[in-house]
Each structure stands twice: as structure tokens, then as C-alpha cells.
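Bug #77: duplicate submission created two jobs. Keeping one. Sequence:
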Amino acid sequence: MKKKIFLGISITLVVLVVLLWSASSFMLDYSLSPANRGKDLQGSWKYMFQNYPELEAWRDSLVQADALKDTFIYAPDEARLHAYFVAAPQPTSKTAVIVHGYTDNAIRMMMIGYLYHKSLGYNILLPDLRYSGLSDGEAFQMGWLDRKDVMQWMDVANEIFGDSTRMVVHGISMGGATTMMVAGEPQPDYVKCFVDDCGYTSVWDQFGKELKEQFGLPEFPLMHTSSWLCDWKYGWNFNEASALEQVKKCQLPMLFIHGDKDDFVPTWMVYDLYEAKPEPKELWVVSDADHATSYKLNREAYTEKVKQFTDKYIR
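Kept job's structure:
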């Protein structure tokens, strides 16, 4: 009888472990390897021209002048990474590295490229993060490993535009989180400030929120096993991927932007991030903007806010 009970318990445990492993694998693939619109380059340009009509003439003028350039680099793990870059209309050391969001690509950040290049006269470089655009990768890295790639791109931009740039790094959504994760690392002298637009506090917080809202499930145990599986498969876990912990270490100026109607990356996150960041810092909570629409809905005000902020530190 005891043997039957022990066997029954053992079988139940094995079944539970298999189910948990399967659910964790599904969650990881669902989160990090979804259908990726960022691989559709033509569709991305079409989307941008529909939503930001001014970009088409700007892009066409750059192409005609052979000013919109592609460049590729290899990361230390031999992943081939891609970026677009454009020199400023007039020679300058002012440079912006612009980081895109989840399931997006560099093309889908060209409105911020337009802001810095056309409106503010900056050199710009826009990388495709891993699993996006023309860059290698089997999955998103949610900013954590991307921070190393972006720092490599920052060095590349500094070399391309004169080896003595004055640089801002600006990201939206996952790109905002990436920017904050970059900001917590030791910075070269040419980096002057950062702009985060609607980045999340941490991967754990963001995935935990989505797990509850999309599937009605608590964090335990699925978040814990999925985080472990992510560490085993990709070399990082949900706990360490924290923009909040990174901004605590950032001594350079940062502008935080967030829509007050954002329910994808909830607005409460920006208050925690702003509180954690040492001075100097600024916060702009944009009225009636939902996720990643602050520029789209307030182009002139957004451009002026970024100009006022960057002008303080990039002269």
C-alpha cells in the first residue's frame, strides 16, 4: 500500500514538473520570441509614412543625397548587428543614439531620428536590437543584454561622427528600459545625458503584470521557473534585468517621459524610476497619452522638451 502511495505521489510530482516546464517554455517563447513586425522592413516604412507623413520626404531626401547609411558590427559573441546612421545637415559633434522598443526596429524610431536630425541638427545612429530589423538573434533580450550592444554602438557612433562627440541616448518602451540599463554602467566622457520614454522598471515587473492581465495567473511559480529557464537559455534572468537598479547608479542627467494613460507600461513605474534616480533629473508626464504615443500626440511640445533638456548638457 505504501509503495502504491509513494508511486502515485512520484507520478504526480513528475507530471507537475513537466507541466511547469512546458508552461515556462511557452511563457518564455511567448514573451521573448513572438511574431516580430520588426522584421518587416517595408511594412515598417509604410507604417511610419502613414503615421508620420513628414518622414517620407525627409527619408527620400536622405536617400537621394546618399546620407542614410547602413553599418554592421559584430558583438563579442559574433552576433551580426545592424544600424542606420545619418550625419547632421551641418558638421557638429552633437549626436543621438536612438533605441527602439519591443517588436519594433530602427525604422520604427525614425520619428525620433527626425526630431534630432531635422529639428535639432544632430548626427543620429539607430540600431536594430537583437531579433529585430537586420540584426541577428533568436529572441528579444528586453534591454538587459542589449545594453552591452548599445554601448558598443555608442562607441561606433563616436568614431563615425568624429571621435569627440557629445552624445544623448534616447529610447522608447523597451528602448527606454535599455537606455536606463545602459545609464547604470560606467560611461565614456562623450556621453552627456539620457532620455527614457515609457520604459519599465524591470523585466520581472513587466512580465509579472502581463502574466496576471493576459492569463490571470500569479507570479509564483511560473515567473520563477521562466526566469531560471531564461538564465539557462540566454544567460540572464528576470530579476537582474532591472532598470530601477541601474538608474540608482546613474550620475548623468536623465529626462523621464511617460503618458498618464499608459496601461501597458503603467505610469506608476516612471514615478518609481524618477524617485530612484539621483539628480540631475527631469520628469514630464504627458496628459492623455497612452503607451509610446507622447511624441505622436504632442510633436511640437515633445521636440521642445527634448531640446530644452539636451541644450543644458550638450552645447
